[in-house]
Amino acid sequence: MQASTPVYFHVDLDAFYASVEQLDHPEYRGRPVIVGALPGSRGVVSACSYEARRYGVHSAMPISEAYRRCRHGVFVPVRMQRYRDVSRQVMELLARFTPELQQISVDEAFLDLSGTERLFGEPRSVAQQLRRQLRQETGLAATIGVAASRYIAKLASTFAKPDGLHVVAPGAAADFVLQLQLRDLWGVGRKTLSRLEALGIDTVAALRAAEPPFLRGHFGESTGQYLYQVSRGIDPGIYAAEAQSRSVSSETTFGTDVSDREVIERTLLELAELVMFRLREEHCGGVTVTVEVRDDDFTTRSAQRTLQRPVASVDELYREARALLAKRWDGVTPLRLIGLGVAGVRSDSEELQPDLFTDQHEDKRRKVEEALLDLRRKRPDSAPVTRARLLRPGDTSPPELPR
């Protein structure tokens, strides 16, 4: 690639939760590992190994169905703190290659390596080196997509899974997407696929041949424009870097669209912990809470609320997030993504004097969370702590707290 050409890597850890379990338990390797609720309890699959996927098991599937399909599988509870610890190790490794690192979930990130050819070499050799180092230092496999845009890099990594590498050369994005199925275009959900098929559009080439007015007429301005762009390999901008205004956020993209309220709210609580403890680590606070949801037809909605003072605790952030979620989700429509962020972030030293009317309970919760975080810093090998709600039925693993 030319030095002046944008170069993006999308690094995606393969079957991350299950791979960590196989890493920690060598006896699980080569066996179908299913992470989530345990058989006999109410709940769903959070993640599974490729061995389990061969039996039709997938994330968000009811655990009873997963057990019916794969009775000989290894069913293990979620150990979120362990996955976060490994994720942090991976992200620190990725940051050695570029400071332009955009983590979009616990197991995937974008790297902007534009203009680094003289320092590291050609993108393909850099990606190969990165994969080798990940394997050597963490024991995990990663798939990498390389392209001149984030969106195409993500499609390329999905195309190369598992444990692969695919480079889309500059100017080749339009040809690359013609190799894909419509369902492989990230953001084209089941509803859109059904409507496209009803219109006689069943390939990327057929979608590309559709005129913009036709697409806008059948799908609306936003979705019509999106379909027009992605069918031509044009980045629609959904992975744009964070705005310059200071914010801390995290999001989860479900492997399979989810409508189960318990799963959605549990995920929201996990995001609240991630965001709040990132703020704690950076000694910051923020006043504007934002929730974003994306449904199975790629319609994206968000809501936000600005508080009179910085959010004080995980519980307060979760409470605000649930209220915002209720404004943008009907409780029925399947979701493919949920995100939570805090904006208006400033360092603790910049904060105004505490509000005399601050809820004393929130202040106590904040102090407890700060004490637990300090304990983790001083004793990283100590047993972690978490909320009871984040423990699944039958989970006998040590409780946890995000750092």
Which features does this protein show?
DNA polymerase, domain 1, 3 domains, five-stranded mixed β-sheet, disordered C terminus, 403 residues, Dna Ligase, domain 1, 14 helices, alpha+beta, 40% helix, 19% strand, Alpha-Beta Plaits, four-stranded antiparallel β-sheet
Structural notes for this entry:
The longest helix has 21 residues, at 261-281. Helix 4 packs antiparallel against helix 6 (123-138). The chain contains 14 helices and 14 strands. It has 403 residues and is of the alpha+beta class. Strands 5-6-1-7-8 form a five-stranded mixed sheet. A four-stranded antiparallel sheet has the order 9-13-11-12, with helices on one face. It has a three-stranded mixed sheet with strand order 3-2-4. The protein has helices spanning 16-24, 50-53, 63-69, 80-94, 117-120, 123-138, 150-160, 173-177, 190-198, 204-209, 212-230, 261-281, 314-328, 360-378, and strands at residues 8-13, 33-36, 45-48, 74-76, 101-105, 108-112, 142-147, 165-167, 247-258, 284-285, 288-295, 300-306, 335-343, 346-347. The protein folds into three domains: 1-171, Reverse transcriptase/Diguanylate cyclase domain (Alpha-Beta Plaits); 175-230, DNA polymerase, domain 1 (Orthogonal Bundle); 247-390, DNA polymerase, Y-family, little finger domain (Dna Ligase, domain 1, 2-Layer Sandwich), CATH 3.30.1490.100. A hairpin with a 4-residue loop joins strand 11 (288-295) and strand 12. Mean pLDDT is 83; it is low at 349-358 and 380-403.
